[in-house]
Write a sequence for this structure.
C-alpha cells in the first residue's frame, strides 16, 4: 500500500532532550517536507527536500534539523526541544513537489514539558 | 507577501451549498490546492487549479482567479461527514507550499 509512515504518533518529552521523528515513504517520491500545525495558524512548512542530499528551509526552520540520506527517509530532528515546539507535526511527499498533490503521514502530536 | 486568508469558521445545513473563500497577496505561483482535514487526522487532497476557472469533481468544485487574487471551494448537497477543516495552499513552483489557516466547517442537521 502506498503510504507515508510517520513515527511516533504521540510523544511527550522534556525541555532539552534530543528527539527524532521519523518519516518514510514507499512511493519513490523525490519531494518530501515537514510541517507543524498550530491552532489558528494552519500548516507551516519547516523544511523541504527536492531530492537526496538536497534540503531547504521553509517558513519556520529555527530549532529543527533534517537530513535526506536516502530517497525514502526524511527524519525531523529537534536537538534541544523547547515548550514552544509543542505542536502537531506532519510529514508529506510527492513525486516532484509541484503540480502534484501531497501525500501526508498520519501526524505526530509532540508535547514538550 | 505570502499571506493567505480564509474565514475561520462557517456553519451550514445538511443538503445546502457552501462556498469557502481563499484570498492571497501574490500572483507568482504554479497552482492552488484545496485539502480537507478531519479533526486529528492528516489533510487529504480535494482539488488543484492551475488555470483560471472552475474545476468540478462531483459534489466539490474549486475556482481560481489569478487576476483577482482569490479562489473558492464550493461544496454542494452538504452531508454531515463534510464537517471538517478546509485548507487552501499555494504551490510555489515546488520550492514550497504555503497553506492558509484553514476554515472549520460545521454541517448541522
Amino acid at each position: 500500500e502506498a503510504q507515508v509512515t510517520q513515527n511516533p504518533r504521540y510523544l511527550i518529552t522534556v525541555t532539552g532532550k534530543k528527539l527524532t521523528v521519523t518519516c518514510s515513504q514507499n512511493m519513490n517520491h523525490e519531494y518530501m517536507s515537514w510541517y507543524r500545525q498550530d491552532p489558528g495558524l494552519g500548516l507551516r512548512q519547516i523544511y523541504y527536500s527536492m531530492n537526496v542530499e538536497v534540503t531547504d528551509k521553509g517558513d519556520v526552520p529555527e530549532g529543527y534539523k533534517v537530513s535526506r540520506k536516502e530517497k525514502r527517509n526524511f527524519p525531523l530532528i529537534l536537538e534541544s526541544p523547547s515548550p514552544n515546539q509543542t505542536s502537531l507535526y506532519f510529514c508529506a511527499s510527492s513525486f516532484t513537489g509541484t503540480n502534484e498533490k501531497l501525500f501526508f503521514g498520519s501526524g505526530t502530536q509532540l508535547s514538550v514539558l | 507577501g505570502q499571506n493567505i486568508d480564509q474565514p475561520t469558521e462557517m456553519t451550514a445545513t445538511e443538503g445546502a451549498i457552501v462556498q469557502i473563500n481563499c484570498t492571497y497577496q501574490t500572483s507568482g505561483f504554479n497552482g492552488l490546492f484545496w485539502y480537507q482535514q478531519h479533526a486529528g487526522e492528516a489533510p487529504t487532497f480535494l482539488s488543484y487549479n492551475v488555470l483560471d476557472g472552475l474545476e468540478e469533481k462531483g459534489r466539490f468544485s474549486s475556482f481560481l482567479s489569478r487576476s483577482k487574487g482569490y479562489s473558492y471551494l464550493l461544496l454542494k448537497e452538504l452531508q454531515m461527514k463534510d464537517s471538517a477543516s478546509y485548507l487552501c495552499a499555494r504551490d510555489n513552483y515546488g520550492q514550497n507550499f504555503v497553506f492558509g489557516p484553514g476554515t472549520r466547517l460545521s454541517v448541522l442537521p
Notes: The mean pLDDT of chain A is 94. The two ends of chain A are 36 Å apart (CA to CA). The first strand of chain A starts at residue 4 and ends at 7. Chain A touches chain B at residues 31, 33, 35, 40-45, 48, 50, 56, 58-59, 90, 96-99, 101-102, 104-107 (CB under 8 Å).
